[in-house]
Amino acid sequence: MMGRIVKGLALSAIASSVVIAGGYKIPEQSLNSMALGAAYVAHTTGADTAYYNPANMAFMDADKSYVEGGITLAHLPSNVYTLVSPYSGDSEVENLLLPFLYYVSKPTGDVRWGVSLTVPGGLTKRWQEQPQKSFAEEFTLKIVELNPSISYKVADNFSIGGGVRFIYSEGVVKSAGEVSRDMEGDTFEFGYNLAMTYKPTAAINFAVTYRSNVDLNEEGTASLYSGVL
Fold first, then answer.
1. What angle (nearest 5°) sits at the alpha carbon of residue 70, between those of residues 127 and 103?
2. How far apart are CA 190 and CA 186, in angstroms?
3. Which of 65, 91, 159, 162 is the most exposed place for a label (fewest CB within 10 A)?
4. Closest CA to 152 of 182, 107, 193
5. Count of Cβ atoms closer than 10 Å to residue 95 Cβ
6. Hey, how many other C-beta atoms are within 10 angstroms of the C-beta on 144?
7. What CATH number labels 2-226?
8. C-beta of residue 223 within 8 angstroms of C-beta of residue 5
9. Domain ranges of the chain
10. What is the C-alpha separation between 98 and 109, in angstroms, rounded?
11. Of 52, 98, 56, whose CA–CA distance to 75 is shortest?
């Protein structure tokens, strides 16, 4: 057996690449965004504005504070990998609970603040049959993001916003065959987001949002084993 602490674990490269490719990305982070297929930036009206477009917090009802929370059930059915018998196999069925929580305060002058807690990326895939288990027994990625933000109303039809992204991630990569591996790591990273909204008329909204790139440089343990487990 060979085990050691690994910095810049290869797991982080795997995790980052799949998030960018969209395989682990979860864009729908609220009830409205799910109904609209995440096409939900220019015209946000609920507490989830704190996440999708903080600049729009400036245009929300000044007499109210807003709260929204919920849990999404992500059901991942079994995938069938078909080869000649006896090498075919099925992946495990996964049922994952993904929470979200938002809050937008009442304004203080032209300034308003909000906060979001989301799971913007993750999921898992496991194989318990050979030969699939030799290469991909488990690939799991968890990402939790806390994003406090503020908005400032520059004019009655123009606002800006932004926030700080606090991101925690865990990753697991396992395989069990002639050469087996057991890799686990986690990280705490920072980023930022910016937003701008312009409303030339009551019926038209123009919005631009930006979320900074965040590399998941996970650190943890990596063990290699020889022999079939």
1. 130
2. 14
3. 65
4. 107
5. 8
6. 17
7. 2.40.160.60
8. no
9. 2-226
10. 35
11. 98
C-alpha distance from residue 113 to each of 29, 78, 102, 148 (Å)? 19, 42, 11, 8
Determine the residue type at 21: A
Q: How many angstroms separate the most distant Cα atoms in the chain?
A: 70
Neighbours of 54 (CB within 10 A): 33
Structure tokens at 43: 């015209």
Cα–Cα distance for residue pair 225/229, rounded to 1 Å: 9
Taking 70 as the pLDDT cut, the residues of the chain under it are 1-24, 27-28, 31-39, 84, 227-229
Strand partners, 3: 223
SS3 assignment, position 34: helix
Query: What is the CB neighbour count within 10 angstroms for residue 33?
Result: 20
What is the spatial distance between Cα 9 and Cα 214, in angstroms, rounded to a whole number? 16
pLDDT in tens, 160-219: 999 999 999 999 988 888 888 888 999 999 999 999 999 998 888 899 999 999 998 888
How does DSSP assign 62-106, residue by residue?
TT--EEEEEEEEEEEPPPEE--STTS-EEBPPEEEEEEEEEEEPP
